[in-house]
Design goal:
The protein has 238 residues and is of the alpha+beta class. It has three domains: 57 residues, RNA-binding S4 domain (Structural Genomics Hypothetical 15.5 Kd Protein In mrcA-pckA Intergenic Region, Chain A); 82 residues, Pseudouridine synthase I, catalytic domain, N-terminal subdomain (Alpha-Beta Plaits), CATH 3.30.70.580; 77 residues, Alpha-Beta Plaits (2-Layer Sandwich). Helices cover 24% and strands 28% of the residues. The chain has eight helices and 15 strands. Strands 7, 8, 9, 10, 11, 12, 13, 14 and 15 form a nine-stranded mixed β-sheet that branches. It has a four-stranded antiparallel β-sheet with strand order 3-2-5-6, with no helix packed on it. A hairpin with a 2-residue loop joins strand 13 and strand 14. The longest helix has 9 residues. Bound molecules: uracil. The site of uracil (URA) has 8 residues, from helix 6.
């Protein structure tokens, strides 16, 4: 439990500098429980606090944990160069509170992308030691064969990787569609593994991380949602 002055609360939630947040309050743009709060020094218990800024409702969150259904042609990098960044799909408050993607998807990869401003969560999710399975559906240029599936399960050697990399699960969904589950997150890993096995990936979608399924979130492409504690717990499941 912690009680904080309203200007600090707004700043922590990504509404701008302390000075800017004070101006918002003094201009009557902030209300709590339906009442405008004009005094920047009023203090509030942050746990469970609901407030509105410019009439838009917000809930205080110490950290945010977000799932985005990433569309193609968005970059995960903080300084995108050829396409807009994924942060442009979220309210601007999130960039100001330093929300970042957890790992990266290529600009043309779609599907489940986690984002957060909680450094320990980002670190834990990205740690190779945790072996969190990630499920991808790859569409290939050439028809799939049992031999290719076997190669991916046995491991393929990639340039710059000391040991062969193998899929934990790999199964054909269709003549040109493959489900592949990886526990590592190497650069362009699915695409490079498919290329090493003699095929070419023409489309890639991430559908699950740990036990969290994108379908269960019911997010249209480009949409996002907060993840609650139970959903975050699913992320650790294999
Ligand atoms: N593997 C790839 O090749 N690209 C991604 O975006 C994710 C995994």
């Amino acid at each position: 439990m912690s009680k904080l002055p309203l200007d600090r609360i707004l700043q922590s939630q990504g509404f701008g500098t302390r000075k800017w947040c004070r101006e918002l309050i003094e201009d009557g743009e902030v209300s709590i429980g339906g009442e405008t709060v004009g005094d920047t020094r009023s203090t509030f218990e942050t746990d469970g606090l609901e407030f509105s800024v410019y009439g838009e409702p917000w809930q205080y969150r110490e950290h945010v944990y977000i799932a985005l259904n990433k569309p193609a042609d968005y970059e995960c990098s903080r300084k995108p160069s050829h396409h807009p960044g994924v942060l442009s799909l979220l309210p601007e408050q999130f960039a100001l509170r330093d929300v970042q993607p957890v790992g990266r998807l290529d600009h043309d990869t779609t599907g489940l992308l986690l984002m957060s401003d909680d450094g320990s969560f980002i670190h834990a999710q990205s740690s190779p030691k945790r072996h969190i399975p990630k499920v991808y559906v790859a569409t290939t240029h050439e028809p799939l064969t049992p031999r290719l599936v076997e190669q991916l399960l046995n491991g393929v050697k990639l340039h710059d990787e000391p040991a062969p990399l193998a899929a934990v699960v790999c199964r054909m969904l269709d003549t040109h569609q493959l489900e592949i589950v990886l526990e590592q997150g190497k650069y362009h890993q699915v695409k490079r593994m498919l290329a090493a096995a003699g095929n070419h990936c023409v489309a890639l979608r991430r559908t699950e991380i740990g036990g969290l399924k994108l379908d269960a979130l019911d997010l249209p492409e480009g949409a996002w949602c907060y993840l609650d504690e139970a959903q975050r717990a699913l992320l650790a499941q294999s």
